[in-house]
């Protein structure tokens, strides 16, 4: 778990997006303005049922060991809940290797391989760095030259910037952070606890 957050500054050609006012959020009552931005971002990858009746958001980093440990837990919860919609928020906080991995993963959407690439990056043993990320991409048959060109896309920089801004504004303490409804959980948790978070969101 990443306890001391590093906010990465990205230069963008477009103006900085408006983010809800900063607040100290303990994870007990998520204000509606944050919930809207988290649940309805067209620039964020979606797992599970896109039309689901409950939404789970994960802030994660490919170099976070607890994010890696949570991947099979997340897959189990998604597999058991056909009504679950999951929003993936790339939040690279462990240095430049994490930034490269996040940008590459988001760029892989243009080749229709985000879900596969995401899971392989989280399951690999080596640290996610430029060389290891491109090695994974080649092993999966991705066009790595096109991938690297697509990594410079404005929408990718905007996704990461928004993750940083939302995390900062909400006072998130690190990865992985799971948010559903107006509540959240931080760190590695059981599939039962994650399912409880989703169930509470449905009830409320």
From TrEMBL:
Leader sequence residues: 1-26
Keyword Nucleotidyltransferase: no
InterPro entries assigned to the protein according to its UniProt record, in alphabetical order: DSBA-like_thioredoxin_dom, Thioredoxin-like_sf
Pfam families associated with the record: DSBA
Name of the featured protein: DsbA family protein
Keyword Cytoplasm (UniProt): no
Domain DSBA-like thioredoxin: start-end pairs: 55-197
PANTHER family to which the protein is assigned, alphabetical: DISULFIDE BOND FORMATION PROTEIN D, GLUTATHIONE S-TRANSFERASE KAPPA
Keywords attached to this entry: Disulfide bond, Oxidoreductase, Redox-active center, Signal
Superkingdom classification of source: Bacteria
């Amino acid at each position: 778990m990443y306890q001391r957050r590093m906010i990465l500054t990205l230069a963008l050609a477009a103006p900085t997006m408006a983010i809800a006012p900063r607040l100290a959020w303990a994870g007990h009552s998520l204000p509606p303005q944050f919930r809207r931005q988290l649940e309805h971002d067209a620039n964020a990858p979606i797992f599970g049922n896109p039309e689901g009746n409950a939404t789970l958001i994960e802030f994660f980093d490919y170099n976070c060991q607890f994010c890696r440990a949570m991947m099979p837990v997340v897959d189990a919860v998604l597999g058991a809940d056909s009504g679950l919609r999951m929003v993936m928020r790339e939040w690279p906080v462990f240095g430049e290797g994490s930034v490269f991995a996040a940008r590459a993963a988001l760029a892989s959407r243009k080749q229709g391989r985000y879900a596969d690439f995401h899971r392989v990056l989280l399951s690999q043993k080596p640290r996610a760095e430029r060389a290891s990320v491109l090695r994974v991409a080649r092993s999966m048959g991705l066009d790595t030259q096109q991938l690297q060109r697509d990594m410079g896309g404005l929408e990718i920089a905007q996704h990461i910037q928004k993750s940083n801004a939302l995390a900062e504004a909400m006072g998130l303490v690190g990865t992985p952070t799971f948010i559903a409804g107006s509540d959240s959980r931080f760190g590695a948790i059981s599939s039962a606890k994650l399912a409880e978070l989703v169930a509470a969101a449905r009830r409320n």
